[in-house]
Design goal:
- With about 300 residues, the protein is an alpha+beta fold.
- It folds into two domains: about 5-55 and about 65-125 and about 235-265; about 135-230 and about 265-295, hypothetical protein PF0899 fold (2-Layer Sandwich), CATH 3.30.2320.
- It has helices at about 15-25, 100-130, 145-160, 175-180, 185, 195-200, 280-295, and strands at about 40, 50-55, 75-80, 85-90, 135, 165-170, 205, 210, 220-225, 230-245, 255-265, 270-275.
- The strands form three sheets. A six-stranded mixed beta sheet has the order 5-12-9-6-8-7.
């Protein structure tokens, strides 16, 4: 059974539950993991603010005798809605909290990590779909045009000032298959580093990493996003631990319990480009942004 360090044992219990669950969740969080964490949290109010600049710092030729003129740009702070509440309350029947076998704890932690990862991923995708810009191109993706269609959207995002190093492309299963049968794309796999392969990257288009994602919905072909403009924050309000149940119903039982709160936000809709596969599904994702993108 579990052997707490406080009694001379070798196992850290609730001190490591949170880190283990988060680590396991990351295995399931393909897009969520790409969201940046630039927020500043006020420990008193719990509010998280995201710094957002209205321009880049100007670099000028320096005159040794006269110096250079001062320039100015502003940094605004965007409030992140902390509206993502997650909880774990998994029954461990027949064991008091201090007597739960290690294998049962490990099983529950693994399950919690998997479920949390899926929840994160679905919430992150929903945030991109509702806050990004929908492409006016609804051409059906085929093996012959998949590479060009994505390359075109990447080119458009570069023209908006998006960073190649910070962009990612998430593709559906059908688009993944189309790309893998395209020699131009297949040849990029040999240039991937070990880190990108571990992150699930299958190739690059115009220098931007491509990752398959099967949770985006049938109407989505692919999403291109600049991670600087996709932000997240999460913190444990109640660190996960195995606690005794004293609810008057369960006898000699315990539960893995924990609670967290977080937020997801797109700070620039032009930093997320969504390619749909039908002309009618655009309205279900972001009708207003479709019109805006068609005019741009």
């Amino acid at each position: 059974m579990a052997n707490p360090k406080a009694t001379g044992g070798t196992h850290e219990l609730k001190e490591t539950y949170a880190t283990q669950i988060v680590a396991l969740a990351r295995l399931e969080s393909n897009i969520y993991n790409d969201f940046s964490e630039d927020g500043i949290r006020n420990e008193v109010t719990g509010q998280v603010k995201i710094p957002s600049r209205d321009g880049e710092v100007t670099v000028s030729d320096y005159d040794i005798r006269n110096g250079i003129e001062l320039t100015q740009s502003a940094t605004e702070y965007i409030d992140m809605p902390m509206d993502k509440h997650y909880g774990v309350n998994e029954l461990i029947d027949g064991y008091e909290a201090d007597a739960v076998p290690d294998d049962l704890v490990a099983q529950r932690i693994e399950s919690a990590g998997y479920s949390l990862g899926l929840k994160h991923e679905k919430d992150a995708i929903a945030t991109l779909k509702t806050s990004g810009t929908t492409s006016s191109d609804t051409t059906k993706i085929t093996t012959s045009n998949a590479y060009k269609a994505i390359a075109t959207e990447v080119k458009n995002m570069k023209a908006r000032g998006m960073s190649v190093a910070k962009m990612r492309i998430a593709v559906s299963a059908d688009v993944e298959l189309a790309l893998l049968t395209d020699d131009k794309f297949a040849n990029t796999a040999g240039t991937l580093g070990e880190t990108l392969v571990r992150e699930g990257v299958i190739g690059k288009i115009n220098g931007v990493a491509v990752k398959p994602n099967y949770l985006m919905g049938d109407e989505v072909d692919f999403i291109v996003y600049d991670t600087r403009f996709t932000q997240k924050h999460e913190t444990w309000e109640v660190a996960p631990s195995v606690n005794p149940l004293a609810d008057g119903k369960h006898i000699g039982s315990s539960a893995l319990q924990g609670r967290s709160v977080g937020g997801l936000i797109v700070t620039n809709s032009l930093g997320v480009q969504i390619k749909l596969n039908t002309a009618t599904s655009g309205a279900s994702v972001n009708e207003a942004n479709t019109d805006k993108n068609a005019k741009s």
